[in-house]
Design a protein that fits this description.
Length: 119
């Protein structure tokens, strides 16, 4: 089992920046990829970004490309989402989740962290 804890959310003005963290504990050696998702009020949860834990390859939602950067610190078992040039439409609860080597669906969701971007 892997447990995930997100942090770093908050209230920021449009154009500002935030860095979210997702700290993993437990059987972290099983992590294949870690991803960030978000859910805005009244909307479905959507994929934002993901990183392959060994190759460090990354992929992003089109609307955040060039503004968001996902990275990871293997020694700290932590992934980060650096969000620049934030827009009001980025307002959502942000969640992290993992894929493991034996389960390539995203699972083991964290509790989420609120990001609010004011105009």
């Amino acid at each position: 089992q892997v447990q995930l804890v997100e942090s770093g959310g908050g209230l920021v003005q449009a154009g500002g920046s935030l860095r979210l963290s997702c700290a993993a504990s437990g059987r972290t050696f099983t992590i294949y990829e870690m991803g960030w998702f978000r859910q805005a009020p009244g909307k479905e949860r959507e994929f934002v970004a993901a990183i392959n834990w060994s190759s460090v390859s990354t992929y992003y939602l089109d609307s955040v490309k060039g503004r968001f950067t996902i990275s990871r610190d293997d020694a700290k078992n932590t992934a980060y989402l650096r969000m620049n040039s934030l827009k009001p439409e980025d307002t959502a609860v942000y969640y992290c989740a993992i894929q493991t080597h034996d389960d390539r669906r995203f699972h083991s969701w964290g509790q989420g962290t609120q990001v609010t971007v004011s105009s």
